[in-house]
């Protein structure tokens, strides 16, 4: 998908999704570290990191990722917020990569709620 296809509002929304996913990954890694070596939470943290990288690859190089730092301590809540933002921009005719990322974030929400706990 070419980044030129994203209008300014979508770029801003995608940047917000990246911020949410980065914060969720940060918290998931803290939980994984607390879980010790071979924690199942490591896979969740890695999955969130991977999703954040994939979403950020949609942005033009000059896109600004700065913005408010998401506040909270529950990765699942940040994932849900990211999914909500993706839902807003995944309208009819949206690029398939956006739709795939929305599905991926949905899977990560499920994983965060079932295996990582609070």
Account of the 3D structure:
The chain is mainly α. It has helices spanning about 10-35, 40-55, 75-90, 95-115. It is globular and about 45 Å long.
**Beta fraction:** under 5%
Q: What percentage of residues falls in helices of 4 or more residues?
A: 55-70%
Described by its quaternary structure, the protein is: single chain
Distance between the termini: 36 Å
Strand elements, count? 0
* Tally of separate helices: 4
Order of helices and strands: HHHH
Query: Structural class of the secondary structure composition?
Result: mainly alpha
Label the overall shape.
Answer: globular
Largest sheet: none
- Poorly predicted regions: none
Mean pLDDT: 86
Spatial extent as radius of gyration:
14 Å
